[in-house]
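> forwarded from #structure-qc
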């Protein structure tokens, strides 16, 4: 029935569509990317020079220059994101990905950011940590009207200081961030030589509560998440970080979960070089191996990669390095289940007894899982199951990278990200099993080569060899 109300509603939709098309006509063409691998760093083709970052399992948003103004175009929209091989989540993000693309600019730049809303509800964008005019702060209802579905708004301001920042909605914030709407905003120093490093990595900490077999997060969850992720990726889906011995490395970390995260790096000592408030003077830094990143905070850590190897890099909350773990699982340590298992398998053919002697066995057991979910413990190394998931990756440090000697350091950063060669320990530098043939250390000839033993399970250890990271050609892809 064509009533006046229906006619006016239809006319309103047509007018909104026309307004949206008019707004998009002046905005830069939006770029989209849905792939979950790590994109090469985006070198500026115009504007002030800077040393770009490498976003773990992410990418940087291209821009255009318009009369001296750097213009970007964000599109808030539903996206699909592979959390790790075997699981895809239906999230909200920007320009095809969650988190959205990293925005990179330079101190002193005037930026113009177009935001088009393709979500099913209104939104805004808050530029977290950036000092700007009040009307550009992006708080819906306080500093601006909300951006309705189909509308495009524009934000414009000058970047007055360099540092590591974020962007996220400030409208229905609990739901939209729980669905993955967020991104990094990097402001580089005006002088590219200031705060220069050879490797500059960045990622956001986020978390989701997705029931096994489901794909949409439970947005009302406050603390009991079951997928703890970096850039919406869980191990073994998180890319490794790569460095050459002697290089200075920066890792920028932002936390948009609802709890703090003690981020721990093995094999190296670092300093906190920056916060979301700016850079920390060198005289005010102190050595750490773990940095606690609280809710809403940014931290930039720096260190010299002076210890070759494959070094664990992870959140130190134990349950944050697991996937899809139920919070009501009973503790069965010490409970003998062998006599009950046959009877239970008559009722539940896929039933498997577990937990009597701990949970490590779950990493080796081939358990049936619902579709579109991940094992609680996953990922394998050269000696068997790593027994980690969630917020875990590996820092790969090698003495030399001869195949890339002619390339620049930032090209090395992305070209080696998918090179999954394992570190071969030099003789005598690896823990080993003690057996009857092993003489007491004091009785051995100090000049004799150290005895070696094979890893558990009968696999051969990687042979000691010059530490060279094998590099695939750009564009190729290797799975974990």
């Amino acid at each position: 029935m064509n009533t006046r109300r229906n006619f006016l509603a239809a006319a309103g939709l047509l007018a909104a569509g026309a307004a949206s098309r008019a707004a998009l006509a002046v905005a830069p063409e939006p770029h989209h990317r849905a792939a979950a691998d790590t994109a090469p760093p985006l070198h500026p083709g115009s504007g002030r020079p800077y040393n770009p970052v490498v976003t773990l399992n992410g990418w940087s948003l291209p821009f255009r220059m318009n009369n001296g103004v750097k213009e970007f175009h964000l599109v808030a929209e539903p996206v699909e994101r592979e959390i790790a091989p075997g699981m895809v989540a239906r999230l909200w993000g920007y320009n095809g990905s969650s988190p959205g693309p990293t925005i990179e600019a330079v101190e002193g730049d005037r930026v113009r950011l177009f935001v088009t809303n393709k979500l099913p509800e209104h939104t805004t964008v808050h530029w977290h940590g950036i000092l700007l005019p009040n009307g550009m702060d992006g708080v819906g209802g306080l500093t601006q009207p909300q951006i309705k579905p189909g509308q495009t708004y524009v934000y414009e301001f000058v970047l007055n200081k360099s540092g590591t920042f974020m962007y996220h909605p400030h409208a229905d914030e609990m739901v939209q961030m729980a669905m993955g709407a967020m991104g990094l905003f990097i402001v580089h120093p005006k002088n590219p030589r200031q705060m220069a490093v050879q490797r500059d990595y960045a990622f956001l900490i986020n978390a989701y509560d997705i029931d096994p077999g489901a794909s949409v997060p439970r947005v009302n969850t406050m603390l009991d998440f079951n997928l703890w992720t970096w850039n919406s990726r869980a191990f073994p889906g998180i890319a490794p970080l790569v460095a050459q011995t002697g290089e200075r490395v920066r890792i920028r970390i932002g936390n948009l979960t609802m709890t703090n995260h003690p981020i721990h790096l093995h094999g190296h000592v670092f300093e906190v070089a920056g916060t979301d408030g700016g850079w920390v003077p060198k005289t005010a830094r102190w050595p750490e191996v773990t940095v606690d990143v609280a809710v809403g905070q940014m931290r930039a850590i720096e260190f010299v990669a002076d210890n070759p190897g494959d070094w664990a890099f992870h959140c130190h909350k134990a349950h944050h390095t697991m996937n899809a773990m139920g919070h009501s699982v009973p503790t069965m340590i010490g409970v003998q289940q062998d006599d009950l298992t046959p009877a239970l398998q008559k009722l539940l053919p896929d039933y498997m007894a577990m937990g009597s002697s701990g949970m490590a066995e779950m990493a080796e057991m081939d358990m049936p899982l619902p579709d579109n979910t991940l094992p609680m413990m996953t990922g394998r190394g050269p000696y068997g199951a790593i027994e980690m998931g969630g917020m875990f990756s590996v820092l790969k440090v090698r003495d030399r990278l001869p195949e890339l000697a002619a390339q620049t350091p930032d090209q090395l950063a992305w070209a080696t990200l998918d090179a999954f060669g394992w570190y071969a320990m030099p003789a005598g530098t690896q823990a080993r099993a003690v057996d009857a043939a092993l003489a007491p250390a004091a009785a051995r000839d100090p000049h004799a080569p150290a005895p070696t033993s094979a890893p558990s399970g009968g696999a051969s250890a990687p042979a000691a060899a010059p530490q060279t990271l094998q590099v695939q050609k750009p564009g190729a892809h290797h799975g974990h």
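QC bot note: Helices lie at 4-26, 173-178, 341-347, 409-415. Residues 4-26 form the longest helix (23 residues).
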